[in-house]
Amino acid sequence: MGCFDFTYADNGKNIRGGQGYIYITNALAKAANLPNPIHFQTADEYGNFSCEIGHKTISVDIYVILALEAYLGKHYVEYVRDKEEQYDFKNACKAMIVGLRARSSMRYCQTTREVGISYFFDKKFEKSQKPFQCKVPKIGNQKEKMVWIDTILSHPIPLLITRKKLRLSGEPSEIGQKLGFVSGDDPNQGFSPSKNIYYCYKKDQ
After folding, report:
1. Which of 5, 41, 91, 180 is the most buried (most CB within 10 A)?
2. Whole-model pTM above 0.90?
3. pLDDT value of residue 193
4. Is the pLDDT assigned to residue 109 strictly greater than 90?
């Protein structure tokens, strides 16, 4: 199913009910002719985002976005080991990309969604450690601040969702390195107000 709620990389708050921006890989932006970042108006707890693309508003599944990025970046093989399943996955990804180019809302696709979930929650990209302090830079009206971090993520293609549009460009991994943070799941799962939940990002070399 995935997680219940995500965090903004730039302010450490829960994204539910808010709007913002999803940063995607250049490969996906080119293949599906998408703006980068994608502006979203609302998001639910299951990863469905209502996005403004051109003059249309479409529904986008964030786990499918991750799966498409993994497909284009060739990071999917260990999550789809069976040859027949790989064939189905590739075809599903191609169909999803065609749909995005046509600005069609994403239909539920278990094949791609499960790969996105497996990739996002892969423990080899997550390192928990003794809490340490880290500086969050000034972003817009948000003042510079110090926060406590206990998790470092290292996905080659991180999930990067922000409340404000950043003055940074590049791949999600490059932006994550510059900002110092990426998005993660909210341990409070929307049951209580979340703030200052930050995930430090250090891409594996």
Report:
1. 5
2. yes
3. 67
4. no
Which residue type sits at 73?
G
Domain count, the chain: 1
pLDDT at 16: 83
Contacts of 177 (CB under 8 A, 6+ apart): 201, 202, 203
Q: What is the predicted pLDDT for the residue at 17?
A: 82
Task: Tell me the pLDDT tens digit for each residue of 196-205.
Answer: 899 999 987 5
Q: Which amino acid is at 24?
A: I
Measure the CA–CA gap between 181 and 12, rounded to whole angstroms.
9
Which string of DSSP letters, residue by residue, matches the chain? Answer: ---S-BB-TTT--B-TT--EEEE--HHHHHHTT--SSEEEEEE-TTSEEEEEETTEEEEEEHHHHHHHHHHHTT--GGG--SHHHHHHHHHHHHHHHHHHHTTPPPPP-HHHHHHHHHHHT-GGGEEEEEEEEEEEPPBTTBPPEEEEEEEEE--SS--EEESS--S--S-HHHHHHHHSEE--B-TTTTSS---S--EEE----
CA 139 to chain centre: 19
Beta partners for residue 139, in sequence order: 142
Amino acid at 147: V
Residue 21, domain extent: 1-205
